[in-house]
């Protein structure tokens, strides 16, 4: 599961959980079929649809040199009714 970075918890993604849609950030080089295969294999669910988009890059400055953040894509994964993914909660201390 190297392609999936982490789950995204925003107002929109929490609202989409009611429609059985899950949001996560993935590596930019990963394909839709790879992500679908990983999700179905590791969570034991059936994926109906997947939507993705690239987020805009943010500028970062290191002294006089201007750079950008790393690329990643955001995937919205729709599961069949009756399936769900357990919450991915990190313990913060």
From TrEMBL:
Tell me the keywords, alphabetical order: Chloroplast, Plastid, Ribonucleoprotein, Ribosomal protein, RNA-binding, rRNA-binding
Q: Which Pfam families match?
A: Ribosomal_L23
* Key word Cytoplasm present: no
* Superkingdom of this protein's organism: Eukaryota
Biological processes annotated in GO: translation
Q: Name one GO cellular component term.
A: ribosome
Q: Which residues form a coiled coil?
A: none
Gene Ontology MF annotations: rRNA binding; structural constituent of ribosome
Q: Where in the cell is it found?
A: Plastid, Chloroplast
UniProt main location, coarse: plastid
Spell out the family assignment given in the record's similarity comment: Belongs to the universal ribosomal protein uL23 family.
Q: How does it assemble?
A: Part of the 50S ribosomal subunit.
Q: Write the protein's name.
A: Large ribosomal subunit protein uL23c
Q: What organism does this protein naturally occur in?
A: Pinellia ternata (Crow-dipper)
